[in-house]
Amino acid sequence: MASLRSIGRVVSALRIISVGYHARKIHTGRPLSAYWNKDWAPGPYPKTQEEREAAAKKYGLRIEDYEPYPDDGTGLGDYPKLPDISMEGKDAYENWDIPALKRNFGEPVHAEANWLREDRMSPDVVATMRIPIWQQFLMFMGIMGGTALLAYLVSPIKLHMAVMPKQYPFNELCVEKGLKDEGKPIIHYTFEPAD
C-alpha cells in the first residue's frame, strides 16, 4: 500500500509541473514570393516567327511542336494547343513525376485539363472503343425499355398475401362508417358445433 501511495504522490507532482511546448509561429500575412494571376495568364497571340519561338520556349516545347489556339477571341492567346489525351489514355506504368495526374514536371497543362481527368469522358479512349457509343446507347435503351415493357405487361397480376377483411368489435363500427346500427352484435366465429 505504501508503494502505491508513493507512486500516487509522484504522479500528482508531475501533474503540477507545466510542460511548455514551443512551436514555431506560422505567419499567414503577406507572402514573400508568390505569383499573381497575371503571371499565369497567357500572352498575346503570336503574330511573328520570333513571337512563336519565344512562346514555344516559354511553355517548354520545341518550335515544330508548338501550335497556338486560333485567335478567335476566347482569350487563350499564345497558349499551346495540345492534343486531347486524357489521363486514362496515358500509360499507367510510366514513372510519372506527379502520378496522381499522370504528368511530368514542367509539362504544359492542357487548356481543358478539367475534363481530361480520369473521372471524366476521355475523347482518345472513346475514339478507340470496341463498341461505339451509339450501339451502347441502343443496348441500354433496349434493356431498360424491355424491363419497363415487362413491368407494364405483368402489372395487372396481383401478387399479395390472401387475407380476410378486417374484423371490428360488436357491430363492425357501423355508426362510425355511416351505416345504420341494428344493435345486434355480429358473430364472426363461434365455438358451438355447426348445425
Topology:
Blueprint: H1 2-16, H2 37-40, H3 49-58, H4 123-126, H5 133-153, H6 174-177
InterPro entries: NDUFB8
Protein name: NDUFB8
Organism: Acanthosepion pharaonis
General description of the model:
With 195 residues, the protein is mainly alpha-helical. Among the domains are: 37-81, no CATH class; 86-143, no CATH class. Helices cover 30% and strands 0% of the residues. The chain is built from six helices and no strands. It has helices spanning 2-16, 37-40, 49-58, 123-126, 133-153, 174-177. The chain is flat. The N and C termini lie far apart (89 Å). The relative contact order is 0.06. The mean pLDDT is 80. Keywords: Membrane, Transmembrane, Transmembrane helix. This is NDUFB8. InterPro entries: NDUFB8 (IPR008699). One of its GO terms (cellular component) is mitochondrion.
Our count of helices gives 6
Helices and strands: which structural class? mainly alpha
* Order of H and E elements: HHHHHH
How much of the sequence is in beta strands? under 5%
**Which word captures the global form?**
flat
Output the radius of gyration: 40 Å
What ranges have pLDDT less than 50 throughout 5 or more consecutive residues?
A: none
What does the largest sheet look like?
A: none
Keywords: Membrane, Transmembrane, Transmembrane helix
Pfam family, one: NDUF_B8
Organism: Acanthosepion pharaonis (Pharaoh cuttlefish)
Protein name: NDUFB8
